[in-house]
Structures are given as C-alpha cells and as structure tokens.
Amino acid sequence: MHIPDGFLNHGVSVVSASAALTAVGFALRQARQGFLEKAPVFKARFATFPPSGNADAQGWQYHVSKWGQQKMWRMAGVGSLIFAAQMVNFPIAGGTSGHLLGGVLAALILGPYEALLIISAVLLVQALAFGDGGIMALGANVVNMGLVGTLGGYGCFILLRNILKRYKFGLWTSAWGAAWLSVVVAAACASAELALSGTAPFMRVFSAMLEYHMVIGLGEAVITVVILRALARRNFPLAMFSGKHSKF
Questions:
Q1: Transmembrane region positions (predicted)?
Q2: What's this model's pTM, rounded to 2 decimal places?
Q3: Does residue 170 belong to any structural domain of this protein?
Q4: Domain interval for residue 178
Q5: pLDDT classification of 158: cutoffs 50, 70, 90
Q6: Using H for helix, E for strand and C for coil, what is the string for the chain?
Q7: In Å, how far are 40, 199, 224 from 75, measured between CA atoms?
Q8: Which of 29, 70, 152, 226 is most enclosed, with most CB atoms within 10 A?
Q9: What are the Cα distances from residue 224, in Å, to 10, 134, 187, 216?
Q10: How far apart are CA 106 and CA 128, in angstroms?
Q11: In 10 A of CB 213, how many CB atoms?
Q12: What pLDDT sits at residue 38?
C-alpha cells in the first residue's frame, strides 16, 4: 500500500510526516532503554588544588548490552525478511499497491517499538533506493504501515490475547487476527488519506483497497502464525512470550 508522490496534498503530507516523526522518536527512546546498560567507570582526578578526598572519581558510562547486540542481529534478519516481502507488490486502483506488511510479525518477534523502527527503515530505503513509495508520502506510509500496522496491530494482539487467553489456541488465534486486522486497518487509513487529498472518492478507493487487502490479510495472517510457531518450536526468544510489552 505504498503511496507514491503526487497523490497526497500538502496538508495531509505535513500532518502524516509530523505523526510519523513523533512515533519514530518515541520508539527510539523506548527501544534505547533495552539496548544500553549502565557500567561504572573510574576516572582519576587531575589538577586538584587543594587536594580533596579520594584521587579517583566514579562515573557512569552507557554501552550496548550483550542482549542488545543479539537483538540488533535479530532486527537485521527480520528487517531483511520484511524488506523482501514488501518488494513483491501489485498495483491497486487509487494510486496504491498491495503487498504483505510484516508489522505484526516483527512486533511479536522483537517487540512493538523495535518493529516500528524496522518498518520505518525499510520504507525509507524503498523510497530512496527503489522509488517504491514517494518521498513526500513517506510520512503517510510510515503512519499506515508502521504506526497503524505495527503498533496498532500489536495493540490488537494484546486485546485479543486477553479475550482469548482461556482457549487452547488463543495465543495463535490472537496473532492471526492481529495480523489480518493490521493489514485491513492500514489499508483503510491509506484510503482516508487519498480521499482527504482529493485524489479519489473515498468509497471508490476504500472499496478497492479493502477488496484486495482483506485477501492479502489472510495470507499475512497465515504466514505470521506459521513463522511464529516455527520459531517457537526452536525456542527462539519471542517478544509475544516475554510479557515485556504487555502494558503497551
């Protein structure tokens, strides 16, 4: 659902870019806390006159933790997978394209904030290097596929998980439902942006987008659950099991 340049007016572009920057900045702050750890550093005091107390002063320095280093490699691997999946797309009426998103998959593997950063980076590279999605429309694409499709999709997963937690396959059903909803809702948001820009009547682009993306969402849901279950069988650390972001 990459929106190219020329399909959004300046007002929608500016508002969506502001929302995207705010969301990415917030995600960076949240993700940074998990990557860094605080370690003591002892520094000698020089040129102290008159001498005062201990000659050594203790300070603190932040560096990437071992867990953070491991997660960087996981983010790189998941980002490569999503990049390849999103490059396979086909045109839809109203100036957009249809393809898999991968936002919920990334969020359930790594966490919602790390997933938003990955999706944003993928969209940036696609826009700059491959012309897939416009530069002026980058903010809208990040809002649709990152903010709505990833953070919103993860929120849907949390909600569904709490509703279906009593059922045997409630966890996987929640992942399936969240992946499908993320695609459909992101498509609806893209339709609204195009309609607000005067590119096409809302019902025309809305019906075209949802007709395709409801089917695409089914494929996304199946792929998401299959990959997650395969990783779970191999005891791969998944954010969906950690509970770290359960209050998201």
A1: 7-28, 72-92, 104-129, 135-157, 169-192, 212-232
A2: 0.82
A3: yes
A4: 10-36+65-242
A5: very high
A6: CCCCCCCCCHHHHHHHHHHHHHHHHHHHHHHHHHHEEEEEEEEECCCCCCCCCCCEEEEEEEEECHHHHHHHHHHHHHHHHHHHHHCCCEEECCCEEECCCCHHHHHHHHCHHHHHHHHHHHHHHHHHHHCCCCCCCHHHHHHHHHHHHHHHHHHHHHHHHHHHCCCCCHHHHHHHHHHHHHHHHHHHHHHHHHHHCCCCCHHHHHHHHHHHHHHHHHHHHHHHHHHHHHHHHCCCCCHHHHCCCCCC
A7: 28, 36, 16
A8: 152
A9: 35, 27, 18, 12
A10: 22
A11: 26
A12: 63
How do 36-44 and 56-64 pair as beta strands? Answer: antiparallel
Radius of gyration of the chain (CA): 22
Q: Are strands 56-64 and 96-98 parallel, antiparallel or unpaired?
A: unpaired
Per-residue model confidence (pLDDT) at position 133: 85
Q: Return the pLDDT at 144.
A: 96
Within a domain: 41: no
- Domains in the chain, number: 1
Instruction: Give the pLDDT of residue 55.
Output: 47
Residue 51 covered by a domain: no
Q: What is the pLDDT of residues 56-88, one digit of tens each?
A: 555 666 666 776 777 788 899 999 989 988 777
Question: Is residue 142 within 8 Å of residue 20, measured between CB atoms?
Answer: yes
> Tokens representing 248?
């998201």
Tell me: the pLDDT tens digits for 166-177? 888 899 999 999
- CATH label of the domain that carries residue 228: 1.10.1760.20
Instruction: Flag whether 165 is in a domain.
Output: yes
Band (pLDDT 50/70/90 cuts) for residue 247 is very low
**How far is 202 from 162, CA to CA, in rounded Å?**
34
